[in-house]
């Protein structure tokens, strides 16, 4: 049987997927490239051949994270039956709530915020936020206050999910989590 060699692009996809998971678990500063390589099943040297720095691996994972978010939101809108801005945003909320059930996507965003003191990571995160906000605005046709509310609700969902307080009966937790779906 002939051995099939994977292309650099296929390997890069495997590395990015592994990086998304591993960085989500350990953060940017706490995760060595060797951990990403081990999760991808390739050597650290090959990872560095594909991505010359750890920062580049992390940023590639961040781009993949936002690609998945935008894909999920777009799919929800395409499957929906309304073009009413408020309803389109609600479809997106539902899609995002289902998506962040995969804590890797959620935690990678949290870790990207934590590492945003690195100029290149901050720039990548800002570019991805620009892309996401533009996508949501274009697809929903919502006005600025509705868009701001949508993103504020998303950040609140992040905090509730990260803290694991959905269903918590403590008064402060109920105030924050009431009516949110994750």
Automatic annotation (TrEMBL):
Residues 9-69 form the HTH tetR-type domain. Signal peptide: none annotated. Gene3D superfamilies: Tetracycline Repressor, domain 2. Coiled coil: none annotated. Residues 32-51 bind DNA. SUPFAM superfamilies: Homeodomain-like. The keyword Cell membrane does not apply. Keywords: DNA-binding, Transcription, Transcription regulation. It comes from the Bacteria. The keyword Transcription applies. This is TetR/AcrR family transcriptional regulator.
